[in-house]
Amino acid sequence: MTLSPEQSSSDRLHLCEVGPRDGLQNESELVPLETKVAFIDALSLSGLPEIEVGSFVRPDVIPQLADTAEVFSRIQRRDGVVYSALVPNERGLEAALVASADKVSIFTAASESFAGHNIRASIEESIERFVPVVEGAHRAGVPVRGYVSCVVACPYEGRIAPSAVLDVCHRLLAIGVDELDLGETLGVARPEEIEELLEHVGGVRPLEEVVLHLHDTEGRALACARRAWDLGTRRFDGSCRGLGGCPFAPGAAGNVATESLVRLFEGMGETCDVALDRLNDASRMLDEIF
Length: 290
Ligand code: HMG
Ligand code: MG
Hints:
Structural class: alpha/beta
Number of strands: 10
Order of helices and strands: EHHEHEHEHHEEEHEHEHEHH
Low-confidence stretches: 5-9
Number of domains: 1
Number of helices: 11
CATH class: Alpha Beta
Strand order of the largest sheet: 1-2-3-4-5-8-9-10
Shape: globular
CATH topology: TIM Barrel
Strand content: 15-25%
Bound molecules: 3-hydroxy-3-methylglutaryl-coenzyme A, magnesium ion
């Protein structure tokens, strides 16, 4: 399975909006189905090439996203936009395929403690669990993103060595994931730590094909994104208004704001094709809730 032309690597900036998933999964208030659909439909008009719609995980663990199947069935898909979903296991994959997700994302971590808390498995167990997920997705013609959380730091173990991240990247590539996504779950990275990480990961995968998923707790996410761009990274996750967080990463703030990424790269003269006023229209859909 390879990524389709619009998903495949290029030297151009590629932004994935994770707000409907990462942005909403940690909110104490449940967002109504209609609001989610309106949010995603508005995002679809912004020029973003990829939107993470939700997740097919245990509804008692992440009740905020328990209606992901309904969200998929109600959104108006736009040609050329990839609509993806997080899946932790075969059951999640089955639901994602029924919902006609264009891409699925499996997720593990470079930290045993975080994997244990987040997905109730060791790293090794998670990789074994993913084998049939990747096979099943590929049989259905659906590409697979592989998230590695805690690529710089873990809420339970502190700083994580790049070699530990590299090891998980190798294992994910060995089972056939199409895309690696490096999750800086805590939002505490310094640009030099991102540089060291990417120097390692760049040895196993061209950096323009690797996604960087930055949270922004300590205010350095944009500096990290800038450093990553200079090193060759072209694919970034962002979340409208910087919403986001993981219930198993206490104290971490939201994702880097998609709007800030757009301003950063436009300011550098890069072609972005994402309209800021449309992003504002989309995030206004959430005004009543937040
Ligand atoms: P488990 O308890 O080990 O699963 O959970 P299990 O296989 O033992 O099954 C237990 C029960 O859950 C069973 O129900 C299953 O059917 C049900 P019962 O028979 O007892 O009634 N179940 C499911 N139900 C619906 N959908 C499913 C599913 N799977 C099992 N897919 C599991 C393991 C991983 C499934 C669970 O811990 C879970 O769902 N965790 C969700 C974790 C999560 O969503 N975390 C946030 C996203 S990750 C993130 O935010 C980081 C990221 O942004 C990158 C970064 O920033 O670093 C991606
Ligand atoms: Mg995240």
